[in-house]
Amino acid sequence: MAYHLCLSVQTKRKTINYIEVPIMALVRYTRPKYRHLSKSFNELMDEFFEPTNAQTTNNLTPKVDIRENEQEFQFLLELPGVRKEDIQIEVEQDVLYVSGERKAAEETKETNVHRMEQFYGSFHRSFHLPQGLDKETIAAQYQDGILRLTIQKHEKAIKKQIVIQ
Questions:
Q1: Does the predicted TM-score (pTM) go above 0.85?
Q2: Phi/psi at 43 (nearest 5 deg)?
Q3: What are 84-106's pLDDT values in tens digits?
Q4: Domains of the chain
Q5: Could you tell me if 60 and 51 are in contact, meaning their C-beta atoms sit under 8 angstroms apart?
Q6: Nearest 5°: CA angle at 160, between 155 and 161?
Q7: Among 122, 136, 144, 158, which one is least packed by beta carbons within 10 Å?
Q8: 84, 91, 100: which is closest to 151 by C-alpha?
């Protein structure tokens, strides 16, 4: 018996429609008790094949640049739309934790939302700090949506040039 397959796959970012293809069906329908397995498998495959580029994720995981020079380490986190008061920075043992929340703008009853692409909610990032950093010297600056964390190196960890005599 010939059937037509019209497949529509919905990912987090878009819906992909496939052309109908005549096929030979061995099973006419999926039993209701197994439909959740099919949905779970499709969601797993969507996440597995999603690009890993941070720009394509639809959550608030901040992008980060980590830089090092002879005196310090710098962490630059993108936090657009997050207020300074809504950011928490903690250090526990050798782990730096940055968390916070981006709050949604107030909506009124007269507002009709036609499209919503911005994301709101909480975020968390953690970084294992290398040895040789003076955790007591952590400084934080927040300007134009960029959080800059600077951690000085211990004197012993700073590379020195030895002159041969």
A1: no
A2: -65, -40
A3: 999 999 999 889 999 999 988 77
A4: 2-55 (no CATH), 64-104+120-157 (2.60.40.790)
A5: no
A6: 165
A7: 144
A8: 91
